[in-house]
Every structure is written in structure tokens, then in C-alpha cells.
Amino acid sequence: MIEYWARIIISIGLTLLFIGALLFLLSRLGFSGFKIPGDIVIRKGNFSFYFPLATMLILSLILTFILNFIGRR
Prior knowledge:
The structure is a single chain. It contains 2 helices and 2 strands. It is an alpha+beta fold. The protein folds into 2 domains: 1-31; 34-73, no CATH class. A hairpin with a 2-residue loop joins strand 1 (40-44) and strand 2 (47-51).
């Protein structure tokens, strides 16, 4: 049982490491991320606040469909 959880945790860690490295490389290449209409951006002086509301909703819907499709096997 412990080996099972160890493999799960290692897999999650490697996946997060890969995603983090990919995001780091994309930011170095000038990719600034997803900014679609519906995301909240507030800029005042030297302060800026970005809340990706629409992006989170779209990603949530996509992941829900994918996980429901995988879970029905």
C-alpha cells in the first residue's frame, strides 16, 4: 500500500516539475499567458491585479469533461 502511494506522489511531483519547467521556458520566450475577455485586470499606479475568472471557468469545464470521460470506463 505504501509503494502505491509513493508512486502516486512521485508521479504528481514529476508532473508538476515538468509543467513548471514548461511554464518557465514559455515565459522566457515571451509567452505571457492566457488573457481572454472576462478576465479581471486592475492597474493603478505601480499596482496591478490580475484575476483570470473566464480562463478558470473554461479550464474547469474542459477538465470536468475530460475527467468524466475517463471516469466512465
